[in-house]
Design brief:
It is a single chain. By secondary structure, the protein is mainly alpha-helical. The protein is built from 3 helices and no strands.
Length: about 70
Amino acid sequence: LRRERLIENIKRSLLVYRTMILVAPAGYGKSALVTTVVQENGLPYFYYRFAPNEDIGILLESLMNYLALS
């Protein structure tokens, strides 16, 4: 299911902001939406699935490793 309005909103937002956090319950199509925007526009991205009770340090370490490589 393509969500043209959401895709266009994300693309416009990325012209202003370099970082975006997308939050919604499971099954709302977040991954599909982001994949569509990234693939259609050749954008770099960092994907991380944060697990409940996970140490925030793991997320930050992963993000820092990604940034060091890009």
